[in-house]
Design goal:
Blueprint: H1 17-26, H2 30-40, H3 52-63, H4 69-76
Helix pairs in contact: 1-2, 2-3
């Protein structure tokens, strides 16, 4: 992520021990585990890559062995409330914080 979209508290899902453990079991990159998790939850992830090995790995990961129910539960427990895009790019008033855009439930609120 660009520096403007990061804070000191942010974590990278691909560095989480749970994700890494599952990736090692499956023999895939941790990012593939994240894509697989999203698909198994009924979401449509759109991973970006221009690298043939990366996008084929994502595709193979999705159609390959599914995550177990236990793994799905374990991944769902690692939420760190760390937004990928916090909204700084949408702030036009000087002195606003990206936190001004979000309420405690994660809904966008008027600034």
């Amino acid at each position: 992520r660009p520096e403007r979209d990061r804070t000191a508290e942010d974590t990278a899902p691909t560095e989480d021990p749970v994700i890494i453990r599952i990736a090692n079991r499956l023999g895939v990159h941790p990012a593939v585990v994240c894509v697989k998790w999203a698909v198994q939850r009924g979401q449509v992830p759109i991973p970006f890559s221009t690298n043939r090995n990366h996008y084929l790995g994502n595709l193979e990961g999705v159609v390959g062995e599914p995550l177990t129910e236990f793994e799905m539960r374990e991944i769902s427990k690692i939420d760190r409330n760390c937004r990928l895009i916090k909204g700084q790019v949408f702030l036009w008033k000087e002195g606003q914080s990206w936190e001004d855009l979000w309420d405690v439930t994660g809904e966008i609120t008027p600034a």
